[in-house]
Amino acid sequence: MYKVGVDLGGTNISVGVADENWNIVGRGIRPTRAPRAADELFDDLALAVFEAVTDAGLTMADIESVGIGTPGSVDKDKGSIEFANNLGFHHVPARAMLVDRLRCPVYLDNDANCAALGEALAGCGKGVDSFVAITLGTGVGSGIVIGGRIVNGVNDAAGECGHMVIAMDGAPCNCGRRGCWEAYASATALIAQTKAAMLLHPESKCWELAGGDIEAVNGKTSFDAWRAGDPVGTKLVEDYLHYLAVGLGNLINALQPDKICVGGGIGHERENLLAPLRELVKAERYTRYAEKQTELVSAVLGNDAGIVGAAALVN
Questions:
Q1: pTM for the full predicted model
Q2: For 2-118+304-314, which CATH class?
């Protein structure tokens, strides 16, 4: 039997049909167009599932289950999306609504958890017992997998590592706290840091790389300026790496996982990011003298991680 995984993103509903080896053999996609009514969105989600199943040369009779990776918090027992601000959802009975449309078992979890599970099963975390996946994008997404299972906690909301505080009374975070890791280490934060530095330094190479338009700044701008030898870009990257290292050190000290993988938009820097990070993390971890250490690696599945992890929720 095949399993379907759905990555319910803010921009697109991306669907994949996975075989027993977690290879994606069929795909479907629809625009999310959020926020809008759950009925309308789930109609399109069902159409994307049917599209992926057809693309795989299958029918719904061949599908064991459909797993959904959604932003926000999930009540897995009720099968509901408790709160997803970018979807405009609050206490939405997603499982019941989707079973009605798909006529097969439906499973739900947070999208970052699904991405972590996907990497653990079929990506850079394959074969290890304890694994943490970090995604550096709009926020700092994260998921913890131990013994092949997502760590959900008492209310299915565990693993929100982006909202651990690394600077007491620091920069405001959209979660309502101050000083969260996400407020310093997300791509959004790096873009804001780059813009602020550019306004103070009109001579910076960042202006040229952004085409003279500060609104064209993205997560690569500071790294490109650093590679070009720009002092402003170099300081931005050094500070950003320090913020990342503090959070990663906290995770290692708390969990001592076999591996932590880094993905997302900033994660595309791969060894440009990870090589200096490994050196910085050495000073942050309590177990600096231990023979065994957490391995810091790049994510390998990209956007497919969430699809594979969602497909595996039935397990």
A1: 0.88
A2: alpha beta
